[in-house]
Amino acid sequence: MTGTLAIVKVTLRQLLGGRRLLVLGLLGLIPGVIVWLTTSNRSPEGVFDAYHDGGVIATLFLVVMPISSIVLGSAALGDERRDGTLSFLVVRPLPRSAITTAKLIAAWIAAATVSAMSGAFASTAVSIRASDWSTFVPTIVGLAIGAGCYTAVFIVLGHLTSKAVLMGLIYLFVWETGISFAAPALSNVSLFRIGLSAYAALVPESQSALAEPLGAIAPGVGGAVTKLAVLGILAVLATAALLRNRDIA
Amino acid sequence: MTSSPAFAPEPTVVIDGVSKWFGQKVAVSDLSCSFGPGLTGLLGPNGAGKTTLLRIIAGLLQPSDGSVTVLDENPRRTPAVYASVAMVPEEDAVYGFLTGRQFIRYAAQLSGSGTDRVDDMLDAVELNDAADRPISGFSKGMRQRIKVAAALISDPTILILDEPLNGTDPVQRAKLIATFQRLAQDRTVIVSSHVLAEVERMADRVLAVVDGKLAAAGDVSSIREAMSDIPYRVRVETTDPRAVAAPLISVDHVSSVEIDGPLLHVETNDLGALGRSIPEISRDTGSRVVGFEPEDESLESVFRYLVRRR
Question: Which residues partner with B26 through β-bridges?
Fold first, then answer.
């Protein structure tokens, strides 16, 4: 347990150090700034419309959260591989699953924190404008679940290839924001919708506005948490198997 | 099998017919040997396959063929064996954002050993003064030493060191060698190096690897003996190369002398005798010898010769 906790702590420092946090932090400010600039002199209903229909939720769930999670998830093991420190980590009396669990938890905490800070900033702006804080917690919960799903997938890819971030961005901008919107039947194979479905379930009045992006996915927190858990377990098993069976250069 | 000098009498690490290839490139070829308590030097030129072999022993690489057991276990399948094994890799496997103290502490936590020996380890590698500085600001030699300290924190019974003396100054080198020799009294210590003199200084037993194959094995004197009948190439820098070349070529143990500007490339079967002749010739010819050093290629040629002899 000591070893696992130590990996979580060091990985958090590794992921959130330096320019990476600065860039992701600046990206995270965008939704809040959009809210602030587009909702002045609006009624509370108008503020919520701007939040759900006006691109703020889309920016949070389709830009900030996925990009942060792709970058941080890919870096959790990718940085170790690039810096040659993976051997330091692997030559330890720790089960491979303990190493990958620690890495996944750290990447999730980092991605969820960056995404949630962005969501908290945007929903605080909405709540102040509308004098209604009903979106605050659901935004954070939805983003945290979405961040978990993305980091679970990209921790595996980050170990497999140095091009994981590029692959993630292609997936995001081709599949998530393109193909899966054009063919709603494919929306089941979408990571951002898992978090968005949790948000929609917690904010029922958003469901009509979010019907199109959700596609075939029904709002629900339980379903989103279940999918997150399944993805997390698969990610740990897959990454542990890769650490066992692949060469560590 | 164990009577061969390639095999240790009480093996803790056994390599049986191991090969490793990366695509078309064969890095290790059908290599069998074993390591036991004491300090074994793994000697070979750069690119000989030493690092690949050490990484296979450490479980970082899967052999393409053959098998490796460490304390009777396959480390890739049984990570628990790493409680007794530590490795110092050649590359900078350090976290630059951690301080030296945090790095050793992290190694202790990962190994499940107590963190109460962190200061002792910093003492052992003389990094107490720099312990609270980020490793990113460390010199190459300091990084080498902090990696050694991180490996020793778990008190391993098998210590694998890949070119651990790279970047260290002569004083640090002597201290590290003394540390390795002390540890080797009751542990298996495997040290790779491409520098013959380094291995000669520290190892009781040497395995020479060339082109992924075991070229020679035994104690240092037997390796030296195997090398004795091939010429060494030495570079001599002198103020008057032509004057020095003429008497040099007539010396018994010198087989050839080439003039290359201010340099002489000399081939000899007896390095010590050449070293003794040079000052005499220098004095007799009134020239001054500015430099005298074995050429880099000469070590490789020794290894290649050993492979051909097999």
Answer: B21
